[in-house]
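Re: that chain you flagged

S.,

Sorry for the slow reply, it's been a week of failed gels. I finally had a moment to sit down with the sequence you sent. For the record, here it is as I used it:
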Amino acid sequence: MSQRVTIAVPDALFERLQPVKQHFNISAICQEALEMVITQEELKLRVAQADNLVERLQTEKKVLLNKVRQEGFELGIRSSAKLAYKEFRHFERVASLTTALDEDVLEYLWSFLDLKEYPQTSRLHDPDFAYLLEVDPQSRIVFAQGWIEGVLSVWQTIKAQVDTMQ
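Prediction finished late last night. Pasting the structure tokens below so you have them in one place:
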């Protein structure tokens, strides 16, 4: 059984249709077009519902960003040995600004570590992170935030000892 559906077309299209409509089945063309569009939408819905795609990808992104932050944190700890007292104090003062970092922050971090002569080969342990930091601005920011957190964790551990005058 078939159901009737009325469609509206713009006047200009209707005028163009009149001289050629006897050469094809308008109903079949509309059915085919509807079938294609409906199939596409059903597929999108199935993918989104079946795997809960958005939620899964958000979780994967969160896990990945946590790994990026951890990698930055560990670099912060490792590279702290190259920092001067005034640099620890500086990072302590600016720590609250880390939420406002932009995607260029990694360039500054690498330049800073170059000035400190911290070896490039010791910066990233996982080559996948190098690629991720190249292509994802958010990862660069999270990595740099992790680095500052790592530096400050070292500073908090030794600060009292350093500030105690003997």
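What I noticed first: The two ends are 96 Å apart (CA to CA).

Talk soon,
D.
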